[in-house]
What we know:
The chain has helices at residues 18-31, 38-55, 64-76, 83-93, 102-118, 128-141, 148-160, 167-180, 186-198, 205-218, 224-234, 243-256, 262-275, 323-333, 340-352, 359-369, 378-390, 400-417, 423-434, 446-452, 466-478, 485-497, 504-517, 525-536, 544-554, 564-576, 583-595, 602-614, 621-634, 649-655, 662-672, 699-716; strands at residues 560-562, 681-682, 685-686, 738-740. With 748 residues, it is mainly alpha-helical. The strands form two sheets. It has a two-stranded antiparallel sheet with strand order 1-4. Strands 2-3 form a two-stranded antiparallel ribbon. Helix 3 runs parallel beside helix 5 (102-118), helix 11 (224-234) packs parallel to helix 13 (262-275) and helix 13 (262-275) runs parallel beside helix 15 (340-352). Residues 280-315, 670-748 are annotated as: Disordered.
Amino acid sequence: xxxxxxSSGSGSDGGLSAPELVLCCSQLARxxxxxxxxxxxxxxxxTLEQLLTRLDPQLPHLGTYELVxxxxxxxxxxxxxxxxxxxxxxxxxxPRLAECGGGNLTTLAxxxxxxxxVRPDLKSVPRFGHWLGSLLDxxxxxxxxxxxxxxxxxxGALASLSHRPPPDWMDAFGAALRSQLHLMDPPTxxxxxMAFASLRYEPDRELVRAYYVQIYSKxxxxxxxxxxxxxxxxxxxxxxxxxxxxxxxxxxxxxxLPTFSATALANLLTALAQLAPHGATDAADAADPPARPxxxxxxxxxxxxxxxxxxxxxxxxxxxxxWLLRAAERLRxxxxxxxxxxxxxxxxxxxxxxxxADPAFLSDVVSATAPRLPSMRNAELVRLLRALAxxxxxxxxxxxxxxxxxxxxxxxxxxxARRRYRxxxxxxxxxxxxxxxxxxxxxxxxxxxxxxxxATRLKTARNVSAGTLAALARSLRALRHRPDFGFLHSFTxxxxxMWTSFQPQEYADVVxxxxxxxxxxxxxxxxxxxxxxxxxxxxxxxxxxPMSQLLRGAVALPGVSPGAQWMALAxxxxxxxxxxxxxxxxxxxxxxxxxxRYAPPPDVFGVLMARVTARADELSPAQADELSGALTSxxxxxxxxSDGHSEYEALQLALRREQMPAAVLLHAARQSSGSxxxxxxxxxxxxxxxxxxxxxxxxxxxxxxxxxxxxxxxxLGQGNGTGEPPSGGRRGTGxxxxxxxxxxxxxx
Length: 748
């Protein structure tokens, strides 16, 4: 084949004829192996290009079968021909499709799918659209002559091309497939279901029933990969999820779990984790729902917020008794051989399914993954971190397991700090780290977070989604990292660019983050006011969680205080759905109201107080103390309930399970000392009660009481020495969404 003679079809001068060149391409595709080494693979690609160059002038003279073989060899070698060469091949092949049988048509479809993997612009190549349409027409005319495996490969190739044929073509395909189901082996049945799932195609009832019959009869012959592929198809084909089928399927999986490979186990667990939120539960012969990961108690407002865990299904998938434990034991036996991708996916799926992992299992996971951390991709590392966060793995400090976990975290930080990230990847890493419980500050340092944030200094913030930007804000707040001025400026500009694209929880995350680490010099107060006005227009979308977080963050914004109208609309939204609020969420609402000295109308306030009174026993001691301090400023004479004010006596008894700290009593004394203007109006409602106008305390008496309050502060070592309440006395007086506060010092 190295002769330099003529490339004519005769080959009389010692050169190869066109059919012989095609045969050389086919044999080269058979013997070349991508895993055989880079040098050998590069040489195979170079040889194929030389053969194709010699074939170019003879392409019009090739027969139909030779064109099919040439396209198949080119695709199998993962070679990307030029657009002109591909257009010529498709143009020559299109009029000859009517001569092809089912096998050749399937080969052409699979070749196009492989070329699409190496040439993403394949669909824009001239003549490709016409060629694909002619191919589908030829397949439909010969649909009855296809074998079952050819039909499955055909639909799989179309799924790889992301091309879904019209409904009439799919109906004809389904009828042909139904007639061949009894001849298919388990791998073919599983691949057929997966192809339907990839195309998002819901088969008709007759085809689904026929699939049931064949899978039931051949289920004992399904191996681990077939079972995993079938489970993956379930996540899309919801109509195939039937309770009797799931019971038999999971029973077969349970018997064959000891034979599962790491990859098959990861695919199976991931499919079941994605299937769980759809409520596919089995009432018969099922175990109790798996225990959910323990929830964090509401955080102290002066500390960092708790990590937000991934949402756990409200009604998890009910698996057979002990099924998750068996799957975890199988994974435990594969820890040393599983790939990083299979290991991280399996752990994430177990956490989503609610598996109550014991510390010994998680310790083995940490030990097995430590030497493989440098070889993990970013997505695999993020999934592993999120799984450990969902399992709430936090060994007691000082124990050997805690030392191993800290060493593992140090290696994670070292590996993560040496990589380069796009903005979305950086957010994923920080978000995953922020979810870990008891994260040591000496390991995840500010220098490490700043290193990860280098990518955000580029003009890429506007290229991410609003959810990614909100996740970044939430992560930085959880990690207690205070960014520099440049980052704050870029962050606020990006938030302003997409301020109408956030979801309610994302609005709350951004506002809380601005309240945590922003400062008036870096954040324009007028922009924050406009941002609050945008949020005000979307109050009807806010649920209890986002609304309570939003109020806590809005009242702590630097240099800005929400106005009376903004607070009135927010509180009205809370009152409209007060029954859905937990005690902790209602506590956050009342604390926010006290921070800006806003008292809602009596009827609205009565609704809020009724809800918090009914659920007061659910509050932690810290929340009870915080709520008591808020009510001393919101409710006139709250601490004097025993002196004839019995309206809130039951609430006081519920909140005083723990002894009220001196700080709360001091706050009440300062409130009663006249530091606030008696009868001051906020939204038409007096915030503080006092003598009627003209009969109030004299200035000398007020000054004397302020001096007494200062003496109390000096004795207790608390307060700021100004006689002002802890809220700082910030009062918004505007009737719009918010007003800037001049001269307000930012509090960390």
